[in-house]
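Example 194, ligand zinc ion.
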Amino acid sequence: MCEIKQLLEKNRKWSEATTANNPDFFQSLARQQSPRYLWIGCSDSRVPANQILDLPPGDVFVHRNVANLVVHTDFNCLSVLQYAVDVLKVEHIIVCGHYGCGGVDAALQNNSLGLIDNWLGHIRDLVHKYKADLSGLSAHEKAAKLCEINVLEQASNVKRNSIVREALGRGQKLQIHSWIYSLKDGLLKDLASQ
Ligand SMILES: [Zn+2]
């Protein structure tokens, strides 16, 4: 764990090393961003978009919240989506969940955690909706299955969103992906291709 002063020192060294490797790196990025990907992922500190994809700054537009939810009335997520699609014209929207998601686990339990219980209510709705698919599974299997269901449902929310539908309607190139990440081996899996 780094102290705050160490973080600033690490940043300085990273900036120096990056500039040494590519002297024009920051100047060209400062002029404009043109990412091809929008990443909608979990806030979990173990699932950082750029590092997982091995992509440098400038390549991914990122929105993260607890349990990678796309809620129809969440103006934070919708604003990111609209800007990414209409202004940045990203070509891919990646909804990425992860196994071992604390938000999904919490939704399966009935413990009260405070305000976040309301946010997790969206996942509890999925527990109810997919009761038959989840029944008969062990606790571990159920949590993993719900992580997958959650990704597919959130990607479905992206597809049904008016911003995305309008973009596709006017012929804009846009693909939506449902991915899940394993904390155990650092690998991504495409759920839609299964
Ligand atoms: Zn998570």
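Summary: The chain has two domains: 1-31, 33-193.
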